[in-house]
């Protein structure tokens, strides 16, 4: 299968302390894969491995192999890798410019100068994020004036401007209210037609609602990986069952 | 009220009152004493008189001070801001980070007079630059380097980390991220830090005594000449005794005025740009 | 093209950082290089502990002992610190625990104005006011260690006030609500919780402040009388920085006098390095 992320024996550490140990995983294309687990289990770290962000941070070590469509990401230029694997963070982090410039920021970096093309891209991606109707009249307004939910959708739209194959989301709804969350959930389900989505969430119900596959992480190890239906109806591992029953919180 | 509570309360109010009084007194005293002698002529003429500086003005010293300050600011702020960028956005090894931090802390500990000694030995003598604005400027630049670096680093650290990482996550390079996001967002703190650093350099005397500041010189035209400087001029006027007291007060007036103005400018600038970027 | 720009920029940043490191190395190298010849003429122990400083042989032999200068530097910094801590800590309590957010926004830059005043102006005002006052009190020329100490204290104030109040503000916000919820009066809580809980950071600010005081030249030089005497509170004395500033202009290049001035500068520099490194490691410890 193309476009898929494959992890072989990935381990990672912060300041010599192991955070991830020996994780092997295949992310199916064109679906939503949810990574769940108690806080501190390494979910976010795993996500950051997948587009090479972890390498950039202070005091981190990483080993193992991550393949993107059969290609080792360690050997890819960060720029090339990140055009193909986008990442959205937990707290909405719009750049301190207008909405329009947020959307064209990466496009300009990649050399798109044509105004018509820029406009078309901005419109298309904002529509995908379901934000266009709300902001079409005020594209030159500061992005910081948007509500939290709108900011997060802007960030997702911004991540889409580089046309990635895979979209990684790190607890994108944890800073948002229920209503904004459900808007984003609906949008993600629509997006999976075109993109492979990996979402880290601490919200089990959310994982159940939107994902096709679930990976359960505990103490830096991958305990179980399976389809959502299987994980939630008949988990193979006891730890998974305990977690889903709310024992670890 | 418990006696401890009462003691601390009185102590706090009294101290703050005293600090306020000291500040008002210092500025009030200098402005009051200096105001009489200040005139257009004083600002625009060269010093003169039987004992130099007794009469005339301080124009060459004003220009000289601006030369010294500008040299120091240009030479000091570039490595300072670059080092801060390195510490926050480039350095990936904690050991290296500690080393650079230690170096900056040590530079900030070098007494300004020792920087004067250094500039004299290395620049004035070994490199043969002689006593000139550039020699002093380098010493002053080293003096303000840690001052600016610390402020710049603090500003960079205060940026929301996920904003910067979002840019990396889009595949954008560090250079693009720094130019388009980091520097514009921190402009206020950077500019105000550099202005305050400039004030610090403008007021310093020790590093320039034997490296570039002289008792009398014409308005400088190049960095390779010695020049007059306001703090040095003030010091010499005081050393001459009673007859130059009036011009001394007036010189102090000019310095305090310049510093008050720059402080005000820096504060306002920092606040205004903060408003633009920071409010969510 | 994009990649090249990024590489060039990274290179410039790295080069500038290396330059910063090199600057320190250069300063140390040149000071040490010029200082070492001193010790061919003078024994290190005589230099550090001798009390006679006679760089030119007008009468008797030349002699280079900087003991009094070292003691004067330490003494005047200590006096300044005691005064500055007394006033500065009080003001810090006021700023962190009494002042409202808005008041702080005005008072912080106001107190910072003190830091902007050049030391030569402090010296000037010291001469014009403190020294005159001390003459009236019966001190012969009015110049004395206490006068320099008071001036230095004012110069240390902005630094002490801002660093201490920053600490106390954090401590206050962490503990005061809980204490007040238990019915303890605000001022009692400040005296018994906020101040004791901040002492570590206050101590660090104090050590840093004493470092700053030791390196100060002009203000001290202008009001301390500059006589090679063992420091007494109301007597004249001379700090290391003053000796250098005063004598560098007349010292013949490459004479022992010239080298001895560098050696004195080296001693001062080493003292300050020690202080700054101690602070750095204390800070790393406290943060951990």
Features:
heterotrimer, A: 249 residues, alpha/beta, four-stranded antiparallel sheet, 38% helix, B: 280 residues, MetI-like fold, two-stranded antiparallel ribbon, 2 strands, 75% helix
Short description:
Chain A is an alpha/beta fold.
Provide an overview of this structure:
The complex is a heterotrimer of chains A (249), B (280) and C (288). Chain A has 249 residues and is α/β, with parallel strands linked by helices. Chain A has one domain (5-244): Rossmann fold (3-Layer(aba) Sandwich), CATH 3.40.50.300. Chain A contains eleven helices and ten strands. Chain A has a six-stranded mixed sheet, with helices on both faces. In chain A, strands 2-1-4-5 form a four-stranded antiparallel sheet. In chain A, α4 packs across α5 (115-128), α4 packs parallel to α7 (148-160) and α5 packs across α7 (148-160). Chain B has one domain: Orthogonal Bundle (MetI-like fold). Helices cover 75% and strands 1% of the residues of chain B. In chain B, strands 1-2 form a two-stranded antiparallel ribbon. Chain C has eleven helices and two strands. In chain C, strands 1-2 form a two-stranded antiparallel sheet. In chain C, a hairpin with an 8-residue loop joins β1 (53-54) and β2. Chains in contact: A-B, A-C, B-C. Chains B and C meet through α1, α3, α4, α5 and α6 of B and α1, α4, α5, α6 and α7 of C.
Helix content of chain C: over 70%
Biggest sheet: strand arrangement of chain B: 1-2
How many separate structural domains of chain B? 1
The best one-word shape of chain C is globular
Number of helices of chain B: 10
Biggest β-sheet description of chain C: 2 strands, antiparallel
Average predicted local confidence, pLDDT of chain C: 92
Query: What's the CATH H-level superfamily name of chain C?
Result: MetI-like
The count of helical stretches of chain C stands at 11
CATH class of chain C reads: Mainly Alpha
Q: Kindly report the average pLDDT value of chain B.
A: 91
Structural class by sheet pairing and helices of chain B: mainly alpha
Name the structural class of chain C: mainly alpha
- Percentage of residues in helical conformation of chain B: over 70%
In the CATH hierarchy, the third-tier topology of chain C is known as: MetI-like fold
């Amino acid at each position: 299968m193309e476009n898929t992320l494959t992890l072989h024996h990935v381990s990672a550490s912060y300041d010599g302390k192991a955070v991830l140990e020996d994780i092997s995983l295949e992310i199916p294309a064109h679906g939503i894969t949810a990574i769940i687990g108690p806080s501190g289990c390494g979910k976010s770290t795993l996500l950051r491995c997948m587009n090479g962000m972890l390498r950039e941070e202070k005091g981190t070590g990483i080993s193992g192999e991550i393949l993107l469509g059969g290609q080792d990401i360690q050997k890819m230029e960060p720029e090339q890798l990140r055009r193909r694997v986008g990442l959205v963070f937990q707290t909405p982090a719009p750049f301190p410019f207008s909405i329009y410039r947020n959307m064209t920021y990466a496009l300009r970096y990649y050399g798109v100068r044509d105004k018509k093309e820029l406009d078309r891209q901005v419109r298309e991606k904002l529509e995908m994020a379901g934000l266009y109707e709300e902001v079409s009249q005020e594209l030159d307004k500061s992005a910081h004036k948007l509500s939290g939910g709108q900011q997060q959708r802007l960030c997702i739209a911004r991540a889409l401007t580089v046309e990635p194959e895979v979209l990684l989301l790190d607890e994108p709804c944890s800073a948002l209210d229920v209503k904004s969350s459900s808007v984003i959930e609906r949008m993600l389900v629509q997006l999976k037609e075109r993109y492979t989505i990996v979402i880290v969430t601490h919200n089990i119900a959310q994982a159940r609602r939107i994902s096709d596959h679930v990976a359960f992480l505990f103490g830096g190890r991958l305990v179980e990986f399976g389809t959502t239906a299987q994980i939630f109806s008949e988990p193979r591992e006891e730890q998974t069952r305990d977690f889903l029953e709310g024992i670890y919180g | 009220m418990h006696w401890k509570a009462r003691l601390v309360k009185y102590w706090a109010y009294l101290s703050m009152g005293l600090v306020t009084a000291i500040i008002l007194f210092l500025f009030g005293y200098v402005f009051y004493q200096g105001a009489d002698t200040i005139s257009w002529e004083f600002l625009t003429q060269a010093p003169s008189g039987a004992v130099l500086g007794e009469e005339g003005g301080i124009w060459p010293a004003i220009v000289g001070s601006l030369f010294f300050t500008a040299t120091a600011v240009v030479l000091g702020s570039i490595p300072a801001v670059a080092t801060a960028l390195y510490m926050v956005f480039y350095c990936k090894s904690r050991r290296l980070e500690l080393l650079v931090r230690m170096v900056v802390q040590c530079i900030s500990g070098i007494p300004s007079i020792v920087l004067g000694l250094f500039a004299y030995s290395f620049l004035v003598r070994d490199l043969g630059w002689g006593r000139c604005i550039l020699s002093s400027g380098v010493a002053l630049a080293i003096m303000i380097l840690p001052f600016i670096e610390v402020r710049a680093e603090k500003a960079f650290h205060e940026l929301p980390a996920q904003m910067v990482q979002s840019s990396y996550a889009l595949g954008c390079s560090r250079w693009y991220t720094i130019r388009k996001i980091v520097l514009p967002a921190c402009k206020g703190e950077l500019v105000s830090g550099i202005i305050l650093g400039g004030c610090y350099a403008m007021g310093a005397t020790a590093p320039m005594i034997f490296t570039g500041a002289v008792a009398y010189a014409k308005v400088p035209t190049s960095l390779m000449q010695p020049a007059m400087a306001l703090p040095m001029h003030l010091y010499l006027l005081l050393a001459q005794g009673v007859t130059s007291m009036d011009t001394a007060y007036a010189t102090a007036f000019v310095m305090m005025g310049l510093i008050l103005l720059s402080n005000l400018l820096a504060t306002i600038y920092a606040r205004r740009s903060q408003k633009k970027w920071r409010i969510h | 093209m994009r990649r090249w720009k990024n590489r060039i920029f990274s290179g410039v940043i790295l080069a500038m950082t290396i330059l910063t490191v090199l600057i320190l190395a250069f300063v140390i190298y040149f000071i040490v290089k010029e200082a070492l010849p001193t010790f061919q003429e003078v024994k290190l122990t005589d230099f550090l502990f001798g009390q006679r400083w006679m760089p030119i042989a007008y009468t008797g032999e030349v002699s280079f002992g900087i003991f009094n200068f070292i003691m004067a530097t330490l003494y005047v910094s200590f006096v300044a610190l005691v005064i500055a801590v007394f006033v500065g800590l009080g003001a810090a309590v006021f700023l962190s625990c009494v002042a409202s957010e808005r008041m702080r926004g005005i008072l912080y830059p106001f107190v910072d104005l003190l830091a902007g005043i050049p030391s030569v102006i402090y010296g000037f005002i010291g001469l014009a006011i403190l020294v005159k006052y001390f003459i009236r009190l019966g001190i012969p020329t009015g110049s004395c260690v206490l006068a320099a100490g008071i001036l230095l204290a004012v110069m240390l104030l902005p630094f002490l006030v801002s660093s201490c109040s920053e600490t106390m503000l954090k401590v206050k916000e962490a503990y005061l609500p809980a204490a007040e919820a238990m019915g303890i009066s605000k001022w009692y809580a400040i005296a018994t919780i906020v101040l004791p809980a901040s002492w570590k950071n206050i101590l660090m600010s104090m050590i840093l402040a004493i470092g700053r005081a030791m390196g100060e030249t002009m203000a001290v030089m202008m009001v301390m009388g500059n006589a090679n005497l063992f420091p007494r509170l109301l007597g004249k004395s001379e700090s290391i920085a003053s000796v250098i500033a005063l004598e560098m202009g007349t010292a013949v290049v490459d004479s022992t006098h010239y080298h001895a001035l560098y050696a004195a500068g080296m001693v001062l520099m080493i003292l300050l390095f020690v202080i700054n490194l101690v602070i750095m490691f204390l800070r790393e410890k406290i943060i951990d």
